[in-house]
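Notes from the 1:1 (GR / supervisor)

We went over the backlog. Supervisor wanted to see one worked example end to end before approving the batch request, so GR pasted a single chain during the call. The sequence is below; no edits were made to it. Supervisor asked that the structure be written out right there so they could see what the output format looks like.
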Amino acid sequence: MTPSKIFLYFLLSFIGGIFISSFFNVPQLIIYELFILGAFYSILFFRQKAVIVFGICLIILASGILRTQTVKPAEDSPPPLSYQTEETRTPVIGGKLSAFKQKLREVVYQNLSPPQSSILAAIVLGDKQKISSEWKEKLNVTGVRHITAISGMHIVILSGILIWLGIVLGLYRGQAFWFAVILLWLFILMTGAQPSAIRAGIMGSTFLFCQKIGRQKAAPNTLVLAAAGMLSFNPLLLRDSVGFQLSFLATLGIIYLMPFFQSLFQRIKFLKTFNLSNLLGMTFSAQVFTLPILIFNFGYLSLVSPVTNVLIVPLLPYLMASGFVFLLGGMISQPLGWIFSFPAWLLLTYLISIVNFFSQIPWASLTFQISWLWLPLCYLILFLLVWRLTQKEKLKFLNY
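Structure output shown during the call:
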């Protein structure tokens, strides 16, 4: 039993305690029993490493339960900030940064008309408020609303794009890492440092760090460390924040499923020629892991999502790049902004045409509700699938 594996067990025990206390009312007596039992095993069997680790895990499990109970609100008290939805929160943003963002917002709405303006503002500025209910519905039906949200999937995809951009610009991989992390956090600050974006940024930075040190296999452990750190500050995130759940699961899906989807998309000559297999692999691996949570919370299952994502997601880096160029040009002068708005408008018009077309198909999506009892079953199947794919990869490696 290696030290890293022991540390992982400790982190999982803490998260497990928070999970148990988030959904079940654990009596104080049981918490004290866990502490006593853990201490008993650790002291009595001090020569047996596995038993000591088990005992400490029991103590940490009780600590996670106790930590959640100390911040859990009373039944009759108003819901705190963590219980609110992501869209109702007020972004944390400084005065100068807020003024800068307001100028960028003015550039968007002065040069583009809805729905192009509202969709671009959501993608590059994190402003989702001006997207109409009609267009939110269309984006849900076609399964591409994730491109308008500064969430885990968005940040991780952006991280991959920035790493690729850094390498294209001639940076070494280590330099490309710092280039990506700095731009990633500048982007998060510019969009208002929303809680969901900050959590997603931590997840994305964690994933990039593991890539930088060449320890992709350590990415799950580092991701668990990041999650445990955030939950130690606010254990209510695990149950009540959809943003936290999506950020964690999207990154986890990319870690485990991206190689599978990459190899799948590389078989398509067009995608391989234009180097799109990585981006699409990242998108689909994140979507697979977040799909059960999305269905549970929003009641949508898009049947056209695989097609619409293939048609739209490859253009996301170009849309973001043209959007940033347009914003910078508009900050310099109004005519320059109008000229630079054309490429962004063209891509947005294409996106809108795709969404309009597929949202009108009668069987484009299914609307239904699932019980939370289905979630453990769905993720059990997913983890079994991941385990099976991992075993196949190990077998191929041994045969090679």
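Supervisor's comment: The beta strands are 300-302, 365-367.
Batch request approved.
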